């Protein structure tokens, strides 16, 4: 009975932290279906509305760096609560924006505030768990948060079917209110005062420097970041490839895109379920090799202009490999960073955004009617991630001897 109660409590805890972690994807994806309506409302251009998305992504990336560090100094609850209040205020302000320029600025603030949900929820996981339990719980967290990119556009479409785009931001504001209440009443502080780092800017810089100079942390962080950058390329490239090259309908595209979202969940859950039998390093290496093989198949299919299924199947396995590598590398990178968990989680969150911003525009470098750049990019990210892991991560002598 106690075991069942522990499992229920763990699931509730994962749902709560998963909701915080999913705030980023909801903030990014939920308003995408309302782009044309926002263009008409403000009498602006599509590029300026897309700039609001860029501003949000920038806020999410920079915010993780700042809020992760502050959570190491001031604890987890206080920065998280402040950001949730800022988030709800920014969301309602977006709904009242008088022009596109103001909207873009507030979207940056909204993304910045949402970043706290991502980075601090991950730091909390490291505060509470370690070893295989850390991997297992993080895979559960990934299950919850990975549902957000699948659900958010559907929810956004449903909202604008009976109201305007303003309703999307009202709903996001209500989510901010809910999370503020949860932070106040349901979330305990997980970082004791004696374990917090000094409020010293130079010390913060030294913490980041020590993390980046740690070969194992750098290897895991780069492997994860480079692989997720490949996902950014996949996300930005497949809408054009499936619909423009292969003539897929929007409905078929949604099905194919959603199935790969499911593969991401499958990959992360395999790691969580089997972590007591198979080491995280083995899962990480397996995921990297799977990514290399599947991305090579994507490139081959693109070069010979194979049928649609010849792209869809290897992309399914490529995205599944991301679920494996992201879960395993996060657990391994955070394992020995309990003293600076917020800063470590911040770097793990920031690196994919930076690399993704660099990689995503390259998918369309040869135009919208070829899939070759996508194949080249995801194969390159897979190979470079594998080299980063092999070149920087060193197995302890005892493990090598075993």
UniProtKB/TrEMBL annotation:
Domain Major facilitator superfamily (MFS) profile: 10-399
Chief localization: membrane
Transmembrane segments: 12-28, 48-67, 79-98, 104-125, 137-156, 162-181, 217-242, 248-271, 283-303, 309-333, 345-366, 372-392
Membrane protein topology class: Multi-pass membrane protein
Highest taxon of the lineage: Bacteria
SUPFAM superfamilies hit by this protein: MFS general substrate transporter
Keyword entries, A-Z: Cell membrane, Membrane, Transmembrane, Transmembrane helix, Transport
Entry annotated with the keyword Cell membrane: yes
Coiled coil: none
UniProt subcellular location: Cell membrane
Family, similarity comment: Belongs to the major facilitator superfamily. Bcr/CmlA family.
Name used for this protein in its record: Bcr/CflA family efflux transporter
Originating organism: Paenibacillus baimaensis
Species lineage: Bacteria, Bacillati, Bacillota, Bacilli, Bacillales
């Amino acid at each position: 009975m106690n075991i069942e109660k522990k499992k229920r409590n763990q699931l509730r805890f994962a749902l709560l932290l998963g909701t915080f972690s999913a705030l980023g994807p909801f903030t990014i994806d939920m308003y995408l279906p309302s782009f044309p309506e926002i263009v008409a409302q403000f009498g602006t251009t599509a590029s300026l509305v897309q700039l609001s998305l860029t501003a949000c992504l920038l806020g999410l990336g920079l915010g993780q760096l700042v809020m992760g560090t502050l959570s190491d100094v001031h604890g987890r609850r206080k920065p998280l609560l402040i950001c949730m209040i800022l988030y709800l205020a920014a969301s309602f302000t977006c709904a009242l924006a008088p022009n596109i320029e103001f909207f873009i600025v507030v979207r940056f603030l909204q993304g910045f505030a949402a970043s706290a949900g991502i980075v601090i929820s991950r730091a909390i996981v490291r505060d509470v768990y370690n070893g295989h339990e850390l991997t297992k719980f993080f895979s559960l967290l990934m299950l919850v948060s990975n549902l957000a990119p699948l659900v958010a556009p559907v929810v956004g479409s449903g909202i604008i079917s009976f109201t305007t785009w303003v309703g999307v931001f009202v709903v996001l504001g209500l989510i901010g209110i809910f999370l503020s209440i949860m932070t106040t009443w349901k979330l305990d502080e997980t970082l004791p005062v004696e374990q917090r780092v000094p409020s010293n800017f130079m010390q913060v810089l030294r913490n980041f420097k020590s993390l980046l100079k740690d070969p194992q942390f750098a290897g895991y962080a780069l492997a994860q970041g480079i692989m997720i950058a490949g996902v950014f390329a996949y996300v930005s490239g497949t809408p054009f490839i499936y619909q423009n090259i292969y003539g897929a309908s929007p409905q078929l595209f949604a099905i194919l895109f959603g199935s790969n979202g499911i593969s991401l969940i499958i990959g992360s859950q395999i790691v969580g379920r089997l972590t007591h039998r198979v080491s995280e390093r083995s899962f990480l290496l397996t995921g990297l090799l799977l990514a290399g093989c599947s991305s090579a198949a994507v490139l081959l299919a693109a070069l010979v202009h194979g049928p649609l299924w010849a792209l869809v199947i290897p992309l399914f396995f490529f995205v599944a490999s991301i679920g494996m590598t992201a879960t395993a590398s996060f657990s391994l990178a955070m394992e020995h960073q309990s003293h600076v968990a917020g800063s470590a989680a911040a770097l793990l969150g920031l690196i994919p955004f930076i690399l993704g911003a660099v990689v995503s525009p390259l998918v369309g470098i040869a135009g919208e009617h070829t899939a070759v750049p996508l194949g080249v990019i995801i194969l390159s990210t897979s190979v470079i991630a594998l080299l980063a892991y092999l070149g920087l991560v060193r197995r302890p002598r005892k493990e090598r001897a075993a």
